[in-house]
């Protein structure tokens, strides 16, 4: 019996699970093993992390509206846009961000993004510490990434990390209010919070 970790509102709790994962050593091992399995899990620093699957209505709406807004602004011949079922490799392993933008051109059978340029997470009580902690460190270390975006799910409020002209990520900009916009300079587009939070109080 192998050990996996479940992320919950109180932190990572180690639980014994019947997972035949002893041969998983690399991100490629994990991606092949994880393909087609039920549930949701990530691979972080050599361990399998079981994730909570259920999300709120606002979470689901935000992920959809963000993908929709990106699809309306970006050249879909140059970029692929998707959601949490497609992997992103990080220096620490494998994550499944809520929304991603990847440079197009990979194989149809790829299990992970090739050159992610934007990654987005939608906050929940269980994910707040990870989204503002581990994932900032991991995502901003991806060489191709231009932006990391974190969205509150109950009000028009986002945090935006952007790579500067020297190639570094500074502290995030917090953008608040339905009349505000999110400048994704690395992609050459701007998103309106009114569009992202349509139907959300």
Automatic annotation (TrEMBL):
The chain positions of domain Putative restriction endonuclease read 28-192
Sorted alphabetically, the keyword list is: Endonuclease, Hydrolase, Nuclease
Recorded hits in CDD domains, A to Z, give: DUF820-like
InterPro entries noted in UniProt: Nuclease_put_TT1808 (IPR012296), Restrct_endonuc-II-like (IPR011335), Uma2 (IPR008538)
List the SUPFAM superfamilies.
Restriction endonuclease-like (SSF52980)
Q: Does the keyword Coiled coil apply?
A: no
Which GO molecular function annotation, any one, does this entry have? endonuclease activity
Annotated protein name in UniProt: Uma2 family endonuclease
